Amino acid sequence: MTPDQVSAVTAFGPYKTFSNGDLETYKGVFNGREENFQFFFDEQKKLRRIGIYLYEGQDLQAGAKKWVELYTTISKMFGAIETPDNAAPVDDKANADFSTKAIQVVESTGKTQMAPINQPDDVFVFSSLMRSNVEGKNIYDVVLYFDRRQ
Asked: What angle do CA 32, 37, 42 make, to 5 degrees?
């Protein structure tokens, strides 16, 4: 898809255009809720990545809570999930441990990730809980990515 083809899907607009031609809408729907979708294009203006931004804010605890929710959602969608440096949550205690460990990893390295073990044929699916610094403040993001396979 090209930027024009994406923005032609008016049911999910309006779309913001970034200076590099990438697009964003807050009207995309994931797991029954409107979310921030960002569309990233390559040099040939072909869609290469979709990022669904499920959390953006300064509260790492809130980001970690969304991270646990995302684990549950994508495991229902795709099956078993690989969670490097962390153990899969299976109950309330494991959810708390998963969240705590994710916070520790983000605090020490800046990012933790997870991905379905069995990937779809047409896209690579993975997610990140990450920290960035914007104007001297830590911002945390939980993002689910869909990358076009070459």
From this structure: 140
Contact by Cβ (8 Å): 142, 53: yes
Q: Exposed, middle or buried, 5 (CB in 10 Å: 0-12/13-18/19+)?
A: exposed
CA distance 24 to 112: 24
pTM: 0.94
Looking at the chain, list the stretches that DSSP marks H as alpha helix, in order from N- to C-terminal side. Answer: 3-7, 60-78, 92-109
Q: Tell me the per-residue pLDDT of 91-100, one tens digit each, with 9 for 90 and over.
A: 777 788 999 9
Among 43, 31, 42, 38, smallest CA distance to 17 is for: 38
CA atoms of 130 and 112, how far apart (whole Å): 6
**Helix (H) or strand (E) run with residue 115 in it:** strand 111-116
Res 1 pLDDT > 80: yes
Query: Is the CB of residue 130 less than 8 Å from the CB of residue 105?
Result: no
The number of CA neighbours under 13 Å toward the Cβ of 5 is: 7
Q: Is 31 left (phi over 0), alpha (psi -120 to 50) or beta?
A: left
Measure the CA–CA gap between 5 and 87, rounded to whole angstroms: 40
